[in-house]
Write a structure and sequence with these properties.
Elements lengths: L3 E6 L6 H13 L6 E5 L5 H11 L8 H25 L3 E5 L2 H11 L4 H12 L6 E6 L2 H12 L11 H17 L4 E5 L4 H15 L9
Parallel strand pairs: 1-3, 1-4, 2-3, 4-5
The chain binds thymidine-5'-diphosphate.
């Protein structure tokens, strides 16, 4: 029995968080190992404080590199406080977003450069990549129209960026997928929620058969 680290990624409106909430009880029914679910930005006390700074709606003053450094700082603290202890204790660690989000959103979306953002994140994560990354794929048009319908008044600062931003984010995710075919697996997020959850469950249980070995 060993610890496992799985991250979940995708553009805004992919339904990632809802899918994860539906997936969790199904995963739990298939393993004796404890499952820890956490999110970025945030996931621990200090990391949540950094999240508040980054995602405040009325703050248009933030420099793109400052934002990228804050995400990397928040990630470092989340890693040390939550992810590494979970892996060490042979738990199954699920993180709603991780390093690929910064490469896509800050590197490509905010046009700092994916290589530059990967570098500051290399410093933050010190080699600790996820064992598996589930990427929920959706086009920016569909993703953004879902968000508008669901909770327009709650859109955060990054969700309010214009379509070209989200197109760059989407392109960067596809590039990451192409360059990391072993680590990153794509799920078609335009499908029904049930199908998205079922596909995700299959990818995870196929990848880690000895951890998810119960009938459930
Ligand atoms: P999140 O809370 O995951 O929103 P949702 O559940 O709607 O997907 O993420 C909030 C926003 O933070 C989202 O627009 C993506 C952005 N983000 C980055 O830009 N860089 C990062 O490194 C991370 C972790 C998130």
């Amino acid at each position: 029995m060993t610890g496992i680290f799985i991250s979940f990624e995708g553009p805004d409106g992919a339904g990632k968080t809802t899918a994860l909430n539906n997936l969790l009880p199904l995963l739990k029914s298939k393993t004796d190992q404890e499952i820890v679910l956490s999110r970025e930005p945030g996931g621990s006390e200090i990391a949540e404080k950094i999240r508040e700074i980054i995602l405040t709606i009325h703050d248009e003053q933030m420099d793109a590199r400052t934002e990228a450094l804050l995400y990397a700082a928040s990630r470092r603290q989340h890693l040390v406080d939550v992810i590494l202890p979970a892996i060490e204790q042979n738990k199954i660690m699920l993180s709603d977003r991780f390093v690929d989000s910064s490469i896509a959103y800050q590197g490509a979306g905010r046009m700092i450069g994916t290589k530059e953002v990967a570098e500051i994140n290399d410093f933050a994560i010190d080699g600790q990549l996820p064992d598996l990354t589930i990427y929920f794929d959706i086009s920016p048009e569909i993703g953004l129209s879902r968000i508008k319908k669901d909770h327009q008044e709650q859109m955060d600062r990054l969700e309010q960026e214009k379509l070209p931003f989200h197109e760059r984010v989407h392109e960067a995710y596809l590039e990451l997928l192409k360059n990391n075919p072993e680590r990153i697996k794509k799920i078609d997020a335009t499908q029904s929620l049930d199908k998205v959850v079922a596909d995700t469950l299959k990818v995870i249980t196929d990848r880690f058969p000895s951890e998810f070995n119960l009938g459930g």
